[in-house]
């Protein structure tokens, strides 16, 4: 008994950890094998499987709760893609610059990069359609019904 007391006084945390480990082992041995498999299976499922959470006990009002695994993978992908996109858009082809914008050469402003200009020219029809399409259609319908 004196030896145990001496060990406990020298390293109380280590001694407590050894006792905890011994108790865990004892309890683990008491759990039947099929229950142990069921517990492990349940723990693995809860880590990998998403589940529905119903709100207000309504069958159609539910949300999908991501599993911890989904959450970890999603965050890793977000971090990696964000880093790659930032590096891509920091390349010289996407950098604007200060330059002359007036014909007289007296006015200086921030000018889009050549790549940005190319992209805007290429996408201009779709940009205009998305910006003005609904407004113009409503104006035409207003004219049709006003007569």
Topology (elements, then pairings):
Layout: H1 2-10, H2 12-30, H3 33-48, E1 51-54, E2 62-65, H4 68-89, E3 97-100, E4 108-111, H5 114-146
Antiparallel strand pairs: 1-2, 3-4
Helix pairs in contact: 1-2
Principal-axes shape call:
elongated
Structural class: mainly alpha
Low-confidence stretches: none
**How many distinct helices?**
5
Measured distance between first and last alpha carbons: 106 Å
**Quick one: biggest sheet?**
2 strands, antiparallel
Number of strands: 4
Beta-strand content: 5-15%
* Main sheet strand line-up: 1-2
Run of helices and strands = HHHEEHEEH
Radius of gyration: 33 Å
pLDDT average, as an integer? 80
Binned, the helix content reads: 55-70%
Describe this structure in words.
About 65% of the residues lie in helices and about 10% in strands. It is mainly α. A two-stranded antiparallel ribbon has the order 1-2. A two-stranded antiparallel ribbon has the order 3-4. A hairpin with a 7-residue loop joins strand 3 (about 95-100) and strand 4 (about 110). Helix 1 (about 1-10) crosses helix 2.
Write a brief structural summary.
By secondary structure, the chain is mainly α. It has helices spanning 2-10, 12-30, 33-48, 68-89, 114-146, and strands at residues 51-54, 62-65, 97-100, 108-111.
Properties at a glance:
single chain; 147 residues; mainly alpha; two-stranded antiparallel sheet; 5 helices; 67% helix; 11% strand
């Amino acid at each position: 008994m004196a030896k145990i007391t001496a060990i406990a006084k020298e390293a109380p945390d280590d001694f407590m950890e050894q006792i905890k480990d011994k108790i865990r082992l004892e309890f683990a041995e008491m759990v039947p094998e099929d229950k142990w498999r069921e517990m492990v299976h349940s723990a693995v499922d809860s880590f990998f499987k998403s589940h529905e959470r119903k709100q207000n006990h309504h069958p159609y009002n539910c949300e999908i709760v991501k599993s911890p695994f989904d959450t970890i993978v999603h965050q890793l992908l977000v971090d990696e893609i964000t880093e790659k996109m930032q590096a891509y858009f920091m390349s010289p082809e996407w950098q604007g610059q200060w330059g002359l914008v007036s014909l007289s050469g007296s006015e200086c402003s921030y000018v889009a990069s050549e790549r940005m200009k190319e992209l805007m020219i290429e996408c201009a029809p779709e940009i205009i359609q998305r910006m003005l399409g609904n407004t113009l259609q409503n104006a035409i319908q207003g004219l049709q019904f006003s007569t």
